[in-house]
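Milestone 3.1: sequence recovery, worked example.
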């Protein structure tokens, strides 16, 4: 049996200012220490690659990619908790990597919490490798949590 979720069309597009309320809501429901509405607004104003994944007419995921000096940094990638495990995170990541290639980026970096096993699994499937640890990088409920730094050389991924 095919559920309505399975047949609902999804597509990627550039994030718009009108998406920020929905994106901020997804962020708040996803993280204990979410980005603010203002941070997302600033990313748009700075000209970062801000991507929205739309299902039907509803934004259900997003990604933020910064590109400069031949490098890219994945700043945020999130899917609404209701729509996880459907491959949407992979679609957003693939779009960010495609945009990085188009910008002739040679290497992509990101930080991820060691506790975010699903994200780490996705990044490893796409060829990312752990290159460092940033101690006490993330705010946590009890103190701080380290960040794992991952990197992907795009010429290796082709």
């Amino acid at each position: 049996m095919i559920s309505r979720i399975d047949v609902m069309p999804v597509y990627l597009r550039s994030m718009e200012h009108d998406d920020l309320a929905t994106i901020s809501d997804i962020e708040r429901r996803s993280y204990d220490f979410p980005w603010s509405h203002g941070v997302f607004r600033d990313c748009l104003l700075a000209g970062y690659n801000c991507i929205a994944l739309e299902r039907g007419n509803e934004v259900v995921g997003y990604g933020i990619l910064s590109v400069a000096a031949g490098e890219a940094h994945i700043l945020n990638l999130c899917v609404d908790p209701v729509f996880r495990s459907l491959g949407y995170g992979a679609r957003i990541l693939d779009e960010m990597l495609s945009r990085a290639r188009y910008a002739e980026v040679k290497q992509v970096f990101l930080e991820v919490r060691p506790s975010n096993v699903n994200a780490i699994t996705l990044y490893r499937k796409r060829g990312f490798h752990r290159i460092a640890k940033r101690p006490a990088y993330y705010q946590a409920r009890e103190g701080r949590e380290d960040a794992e730094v991952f990197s992907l050389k795009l010429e290796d991924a082709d």
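The chain has a mean pLDDT of 92. The longest helix spans residues 88-102.
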